[in-house]
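Build the 3D complex.
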Amino acid sequence: MEKTFLMVKPDGVQRNLIGDIIARFERKGFKLAGAKLMTVSNALAEEHYGEHKDKPFFGELVDFITSGPVFAMVWEGEDVITTARTMMGATKPSEAAPGTIRGDYGVTVGKNVIHGSDSKESADREIGLFFETSELVNYEKDSLKWIY
Ligand code: DAT
Ligand code: MG
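Done.
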């Protein structure tokens, strides 16, 4: 089954949104495969956001993601990468639809509450950056047959 990397950013942690965000993905029918509260080092932040290293906002992005704890997660399910992006909403909160996480909680493009992998390649890369294989849990959920 497909896996994606999702992360409640420091603003989401400080604003007590971890529970709400987990609940949305749980209710949707996705399966949690790993999760941890952690701080992101400068090196990890620069690696994670490597695709943006030449953008003018790169420094700000690294400072923000390292500014406080984040809640890193791996979620599993059919088309979870694309579906999670849809549930997150557009990058710019002003363009994120109401009902999406960023649409409901974000105001500025920098502090937009959640990160989610945008492709299979980035999901594999980001899961590998943030989690050891031993931190991911393989298990069956009985509700599976009512979802698929
Ligand atoms: P997303 O997080 O939706 O995948 P992205 O990968 O283009 O968006 O950018 C990563 C993060 O960088 C984004 O969540 C917020 C920040 N960011 C993007 N564009 C920005 C901009 N024009 N000014 C400031 N921050 C920006
Ligand atoms: Mg991105």
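The radius of gyration is 15 Å.
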